[in-house]
């Protein structure tokens, strides 16, 4: 059943909850509010997320779903209609939603996404969420990055008019990290789109430009796969911190600074990541069937 037909024929409201995590905003859509409808299509996702024609967001969190390896299942959709394997900010927001809806307590609980299983803990009444994000890998076949199996550290490519030295990391989703002495939003918006779709990265890639401030602080600018320039990202923070630590540039406990705010990262000896950051509840609302007469 299409969402338009569902909306027209159902007395169930098409509910959503909106949250942001450091300016990275998501709509949580609970499948229980959409009986008989498996999930939004890419076309519907693009309309819902559109800032002018829809409710507006950086993506959709579709859950909770049945999970075989965790207490809750979740699927994460980018505003271009593609699906993300994992999102740190999305997981924090979904954890807050579960807590707000009294579906989960503050004590640790598990969430399964296509990129793996994570453990979340709600603190400060929902104002702070800690997520065990899993282990970072630098192995090319697991990220993935084209070419022979190797750790992808300090390799070079030329994008447009500039040669960059990059590292790649995977934390359930793929990342390309470029360490520079100075970074800017302009760098991300100019080079990010081409790096995202570079032939090195068969599944496309999230891009971070990273500046080391000191041993316990880094700053990043982000071009997110399927979403574009992004104010903050939990998985980008995790991957960037892990790369900086792997290169010996920072300590194992550090703060990642982004235009939207700060995320705390702790890196274990096996490169398992503990991420801590805030969430903000924005709105509750309903989608109207007329929304889906628009194509974007």
In words, what does this structure look like?
This protein is α+β, with helices and mostly antiparallel strands and 296 residues long. It is built from five helices and 18 strands. It has helices at 3-9, 42-49, 88-100, 185-196, 234-246, and strands spanning 14-21, 24-29, 60-65, 72-77, 83-84, 109-113, 116-123, 128-135, 155-159, 162-170, 174-179, 206-214, 217-224, 228-230, 253-258, 261-267, 272-278, 280-287. The protein has an 18-stranded mixed beta sheet that branches. A hairpin with a 6-residue loop joins strand 3 (60-65) and strand 4 (72-77). The chain starts with a helix and ends in a 9-residue tail after the last strand. The mean pLDDT is 94.
Q: Termini, distance in Å? A: 21 Å
Strand content: 35-45%
* Structural class label: alpha+beta
Overall mean pLDDT stands at 94
DSSP summary, beta strand count: 18
Oligomeric form: single chain
Helix share bin: 10-25%
Largest sheet: 18 strands, mixed
What is the rounded Rg? 19 Å
Segments where pLDDT lies below 50 for 5+ residues?
none
Q: How would you sum up the global shape?
A: globular
Helical region count? 5
Give the ordered list of helices and strands.
HEEHEEEHEEEEEEHEEEHEEEE
What are its keywords?
single chain; 18-stranded mixed sheet
Write a compact overview of the structure shown.
The protein has 296 residues and is an alpha+beta fold. The chain contains five helices and 18 strands.
């Amino acid at each position: 059943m299409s969402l338009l037909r569902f909306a027209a024929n159902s007395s169930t409201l098409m509910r959503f909850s909106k949250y942001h995590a450091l300016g990275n905003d998501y709509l949580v859509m609970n499948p229980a509010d959409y009986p008989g409808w498996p999930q939004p299509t890419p076309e519907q996702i693009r309309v819902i997320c559109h800032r002018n024609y829809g409710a507006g967001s950086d993506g959709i969190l579709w859950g909770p779903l049945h999970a075989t390896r965790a207490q809750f299942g979740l699927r994460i959709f980018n505003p271009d209609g593609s699906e993300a394997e994992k999102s740190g900010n999305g997981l924090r927001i979904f954890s807050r939603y579960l807590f707000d809806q009294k579906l989960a307590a503050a004590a640790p609980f598990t969430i399964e996404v296509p990129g793996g299983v994570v453990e979340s803990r709600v603190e400060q009444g929902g104002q702070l969420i800690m997520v065990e994000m899993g282990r970072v890998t630098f192995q090319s076949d697991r990220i993935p990055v084209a070419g022979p199996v190797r750790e992808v550290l300090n390799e070079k490519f030329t994008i447009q008019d500039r040669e960059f030295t990059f590292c790649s990391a995977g934390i359930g989703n793929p990342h390309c990290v470029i360490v520079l002495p100075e970074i800017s939003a302009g760098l991300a918006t100019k080079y990010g789109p081409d790096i995202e779709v570079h032939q090195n990265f068969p599944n496309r890639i999230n891009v971070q430009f990273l500046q080391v401030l000191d041993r316990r602080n880094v700053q990043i600018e982000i071009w997110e796969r399927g979403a574009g320039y992004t104010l903050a990202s939990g998985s980008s923070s995790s991957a960037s911190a892990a790369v900086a630590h792997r290169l010996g540039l920072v300590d194992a406990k550090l703060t990642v600074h982004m235009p939207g705010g700060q995320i705390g990262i702790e890196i274990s000896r096996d490169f398992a990541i503990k991420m801590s950051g805030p969430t903000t509840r924005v709105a509750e609302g309903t989608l109207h069937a007329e929304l889906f007469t628009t194509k974007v």
